[in-house]
Amino acid sequence: MPSTPRATCLLLTYHQEASVAETVQSALQQDCRPMQIVLSDDASRDDTFARMKEVVDRYDGPHEVVLNRNETNLGVNEHLKKCLEMCREDIIIAAAGDDLYYPHRNRKILEAFQANDPLLVYSHADVTTLEGAPAPALYRKATFYKTTDPLAAAKSLSLYLGATCAWHRDLYRKYGPIRFDNAYEDLILGFRAALEGRVHFIDESLLTYRLGSGLTNTKAESFTEDTYRKQRLREIGMSVSVYRQRQMDAETYGLGEDHPISRLLADRLADSELRAAFVERGWSGLLPYLGRRPLTAAARAVSETRRRKKRMGEA
């Protein structure tokens, strides 16, 4: 059997001063053979970097630690792109500044790469509040916890719990960088790995996932008509970026326009365009569509109206 592959653990932080010291400590206490651990803060305005540096300055263990702080905030995808240049190995084990990693996590992930040759690995997690109380594991509803079929992956905007994943650089070498800043990397890398048929699930909790503080965790908020519209357009814009990136990746993989995945992605893009037109301009925004797709346009208008009422607490 070939030797266990090597990996870099990449831990990204942003405004997580309350949790980051404990998180970094757990990342440094991994019981695998010595590995590179890259810790990078995206120009937090609080004391996240200072708390992280304090832990690193005290560390005298076997792992090689690279500490970075961006001078300006880059956002998730550009931050990731920069950090990949610092990572030495092909396998990247993702980590964030608010979760707690069990000592055997990296070892179990590397064993999975050795035994199964995947391009992406993900697992279960124990879910808690920031205070440590157990919380519902809603992530289990995500697509990959039921199927990794590429057609199901193409339509899904929730593939797996991104905090649990590790992936191989070949997902970038073949498909290139993620071209849209608002397309989350787990939604793109998961789809690419599903296309390749090389996704592996570790049926075990390897970390504690703490709700309420992550890069993509958001608190419930009260909306006015204007703030709701802006928020909803951001959500639809994210969906559009994900579907567009997946279209490009499907083409790179070799799928033609008539393939079911390609047709589905085209339909999802058209649907998102229609929804955005209604959210932004109301019924007048649907005028270009009423002649061509009247029933679809009306159905999406009703759907978006119900969504707005529910989110704003209207009867």
What's the layout of helices and strands?
Elements: E1 7-13, H1 20-28, E2 36-41, H2 48-58, E3 64-69, H3 76-84, E4 91-96, E5 100-101, H4 105-116, E6 120-128, H5 150-155, E7 166-168, H6 170-173, H7 185-196, E8 199-210, H8 225-253, H9 260-281, H10 287-290, H11 294-311
Parallel strand pairs: 1-2, 1-4, 2-3, 6-8
Antiparallel strand pairs: 4-7, 5-8, 6-7
Describe this structure in words.
By secondary structure, the chain is an alpha/beta fold. It has 2 domains: 7-210, Spore Coat Polysaccharide Biosynthesis Protein SpsA, Chain A (Alpha-Beta Complex); 225-311, no CATH class. Helices cover 43% and strands 16% of the residues. It is built from 11 helices and 8 strands. The chain has an 8-stranded mixed sheet, sandwiched between helices. Helix 1 runs parallel beside helix 2 (48-58), helix 8 (225-253) packs antiparallel against helix 9 (260-281) and helix 9 (260-281) packs across helix 11 (294-311). The radius of gyration is 21 Å and the shape is globular. The N and C termini lie far apart (63 Å). Residues 215-220 have low confidence and may be disordered.
Q: Helix coverage percent of residues?
A: 40-55%
Structural class: alpha/beta
Q: Which CATH class of the largest domain applies here?
A: Alpha Beta
User: Which CATH architecture of the largest domain would you pick?
Assistant: Alpha-Beta Complex
Gyration radius, in Å: 21 Å
The geometry reads as globular
Largest sheet, in brief, is: 8 strands, mixed
The helix count comes to: 11
Approximately what portion of the residues adopt beta-strand conformation? 15-25%
Distance between the termini: 63 Å
Instruction: Average the pLDDT over all residues and give the rounded result.
Output: 93
Q: Secondary-structure element order, as H and E? A: EHEHEHEEHEHEHHEHHHH
